[in-house]
Amino acid sequence: ARFDLGGFDAMISCSSAFSKAVHTSGRTRNVCYCFTPPRYLWDLQTEYLGRGVAGALMRAAVPWLHRADLAAAERVHKFIAISKTVAERIERIYGRPSEVVYPPVDTAAIQPNGREPDDFYLVVSRLVRYKRIDVAMRAVRLLGRKMVVVGEGPERSRLEALAGNGLELLGRRPDAEVRDLYARCRAFLFPGLDDFGIAPVEAQAAGRPVVAYAAGGALETVIDGETGVHFHAQTPEAVAEAMRRLDGMAIDPGACRRNAERFDTAQFRAGMRQAVTEAVESAAS
Fold this sequence. Notes:
The protein is an alpha/beta fold. Helices cover about 40% and strands about 15% of the residues. It has helices at about 40, 45-50, 55-60, 60-75, 85-95, 135-145, 155-160, 175-185, 200-205, 220, 235-245, 255-260, 265-285, and strands at about 10-15, 30-35, 80, 100, 120-125, 145-150, 165-170, 185-190, 210-215, 230.
């Protein structure tokens, strides 16, 4: 279907694939809020497409899909990236600059509880392989500590084999319960490489520190030594060492909270308003 967008100053496409390919004409600006260029095409083919016959058939179409994605990017007048990590990817793949406006996090809905933390670590995530939740679970087991995992996904059956002895998989939980877990946990564990990562920001909004893999969005959302600690290898040993380092730190819940507020919904609204206004004004000049 074709849409007549001629009466609008701008059209915002929210894209991790091909929605940015919408045609605009005249002075209507195609502004793409880009979650990432399609990762199944550019850098995570095996993880997304698999290794079997179906995966091989899908990979045969990748060269054509590369051309289609590059053509779709040509229709975008302005890219807005969700993080510096994604901005770098946009530059590398499309050869285009972008402005960073971080995704909105409802920090007002998540508050510290003012109490000492309970004795468990927390993961809130989709249970998919690239999140590397197994690494966090093995690290917790190395140290003989407790851990709660909230979320569902295709990795659940594999992760269940690692559960027990203080490691719990709770599945999906109501928002109110998740907020309570954030505020009560000893620390939040974030072992995957994510383009942004909202859950670590939510944990900091609750005043809790984050143990995060030093790559992707975590480099922008977790301040090493101030609101958590970074580790540099996705191994149980590296995560366990970071957890031990955190034991010796006095992390201020207020510092975690203030850092999270940099990503509040109000900041997102202001950033998007300015970025879209600039795109429209550039068309008028």
